[in-house]
Amino acid sequence: MNKKLLTIFRWLVGLLFIFSGLIKANDPLGLSYKMQEFFEAWHLKGFHDYTLALSLGMNLLEVVAGVAVIVGWQMKRVSWLLLVLIVFFTFLTSYVLFSGKIHACGCFGDCVPLTPIQTFTKDVVLLLMIILLLFNASKMKGLLSSKVSLSVIVVSFFSIVLLQWYVLKYLPILDCLPYAKGKNIIEGMKLPPDAQPDIIAMTFKYKKDGKQVEFQDSVPTNVMEDSTYEYVDRYDKVIKKGTGLPKIVDFSLVTMAGTDTTQAVLNQTGKYVMLFVKDFTTLDKWKDDFEKARIVLKQKNIPLFLVTADAGKAISLFSNIDILKCDATVIKTAARVNPTYFYMQQANIIGKYSYVNGNKLLMQIK
User: Fold this and answer.
1) Cα separation of 232 and 150, whole Å?
2) Band of the pLDDT at 311, cuts 50, 70, 90?
3) Can you tell me whether residue 167 is helix, strand or coil?
4) Residue 34: which of 105, 116, 118, 84 has the closest Cα?
5) CATH class belonging to 262-365
6) Model confidence over 154-168: pLDDT tens digits?
7) Burial (0-12, 13-18, 19+ Cβ within 10 Å), 104
8) Largest Cα–Cα distance of the chain, in whole Å?
9) Is 0.90 topped by the overall pTM?
10) What is the mean pLDDT of residues 13-19?
11) What integer is the mean pLDDT of 252-269?
12) Pick from 10, 55, 299, 325: CA 20 to 30 A from residue 261's CA?
């Protein structure tokens, strides 16, 4: 095969793997949550505790393999590794495309959203290129000496380890989520301008002579008056799937009394702070700094809300603070680090800080 073409394939494969690994290494928890979706679809929830470790390892492997194929280090072995990876990725993207159980595979994280058909096509093309690289591995020479190539790979290895450690502690460097600094939560909850919502019909389910029948929107009078019809259930049925979804779904803030206060909080005048706490497993690491922040915020007359999925625990730990309930999945999306401070002005996110960087929040307030 033509060496120039092989070189092009080599660079394309290497750069795509590096880019894919880097963009997900910027937010390893995002990939971890996506893995949990797959495990739930396959009824393997027991693997949830291992998804973060798998995510960290997968991102590291992608980048290192991409660097190795570009510098031409151990081409035969690296080509086999790439083949195993791309066969696995192609299986995942084909599952997303043909099963319809998962919205997207998250191959390029949240920063480069691709449709299922786009990701599947990408993986098929990569698969063909990697097969060609494998069969022609002996024809490709390294760009650098073996020692220098190994040094480059080692540096890339530790660079990705450091990157993932940093973002897990201090939030992603590149925040592509709808809750990023500069975003407006209320605007994110709206449908895109050209999108159509789901068309939903209220559906009533009845049983007659052992057979189930359904009626949409209302139940005919003759059925209501016929005692042989037995009521079974009422539910909402999607008649026509919408053409799009809001970027922010299911975001709500509920008081301890059960009142939805989302709009009231997001539309209040002046600035305020929300601390998103998924759970309190890391409490010892941030409680003291949080108490200091509470004092400063009170002195500045800046409202503080503790937003959590575990409101009962929050009540037992803190007093004289506004506690709001929020879904755990929403919190995981909004705040990749547990917990995370949101500095707000109405629905606008003007600052976002990991608990480790709480001092930066106070500096911005001062």
Assistant:
1) 67
2) very high
3) helix
4) 105
5) alpha beta
6) 999 999 999 999 999
7) middle
8) 87
9) no
10) 97
11) 95
12) 299
